Amino acid sequence: MIFRKSSIPKRQPFTAKLSEEQLEQYHSDGFLVLRGFLNRRIVKQGKQALSDVIRRHIESSEVCCYEALGSEEGKLTAARYCNRHSPFFFQLEPGWDPEGKSSKEIELAVSKLMNHHTEHQVFHQIGPGNVDLLRLIGQIFEDYAVLYQSVAFVKPALIGSEKPWHQDNAYFRMQDLEKVIGVWIALDRATKENACMHVLKGGHRLGPLRHQIADECEIKKDRFDRAKAIPVEMEPGDILIFHSNLPHMTPANNSPYRRRSVQYHFRAEGNTMLSYLDYEKVFKEADGTPASCAAAQARGL
Ligand SMILES: O=C(O)CCC(=O)C(=O)O
């Protein structure tokens, strides 16, 4: 197709900019909350898109492949639905068996979606296609912001399990730890009751902390005082921008309120990915011990 110059839409002018105080706050606390960043219409579309994407996969065996992940005793540890044509997948709460359940029941047990931005235009619009967001992140990086990954956590009501303390850089392997940022976006109200994010304010300045594999990959218990954690309560449309060395967790959701959120990680354009072995020399504690999840898994640390 040939575009005439006049038919090419003009690039939207960037409008968002962080103030000096906000930049300082990000660098000293390791996070920043921007209230009402997304409007109600797009938040509603995001929630609808989550439902649509989940249902489309459950109901179409042409698109979807189903995997039951098992433990040594042959018990189901997690059920996962993947896409035959894309890197997208979602999984259910540990141990929750979808056999004989309706699509609605299954949807309410989903805990995590990976690469959701490939499955719906709204998820692209909220994240990697959001010029205001790219500009803010780019301002922090002093470089262009590029999508690294997208993941959505959808903490189910009553059964949502805990995500233990971790630093996101423990999962990644980017050369410059300063230039990877997570953006956590509330689609529902996120409160202490329904498992909002909890962070260790300023904890990114501790540098890499040793992770170990328990049920999941988590920071070793003695690395900081967990009583110093603070909850970050958010309204739908608020966003949390956080450094990928910031220790954070979400507790179990025992409340009757589902807590949906979507999340994107961005890297600076100039930040490059290392091999697992090279990353051990970057994400390490002060005594040189490799601290990432992969290192813990491979070396039994
Ligand atoms: O949203 C959640 O429940 C957990 C989010 C989290 O810990 C993460 O994104 O690394």
In short:
With 301 residues, this protein is an alpha+beta fold. It has helices at residues 20-29, 40-59, 103-107, 121-126, 131-141, 276-280, 293-299; strands at 31-34, 64-70, 76-83, 89-92, 110-114, 145-155, 163-166, 180-186, 197-199, 211-213, 217-219, 230-232, 239-243, 248-250, 259-268.
Describe the SSE topology.
Blueprint: H1 20-29, E1 31-34, H2 40-59, E2 64-70, E3 76-83, E4 89-92, H3 103-107, E5 110-114, H4 121-126, H5 131-141, E6 145-155, E7 163-166, E8 180-186, E9 197-199, E10 211-213, E11 217-219, E12 230-232, E13 239-243, E14 248-250, E15 259-268, H6 276-280, H7 293-299
Antiparallel strand pairs: 1-13, 2-3, 3-4, 4-5, 5-6, 6-15, 7-14, 8-13, 8-15, 9-12, 9-14, 10-11
The protein binds 2-oxoglutaric acid.
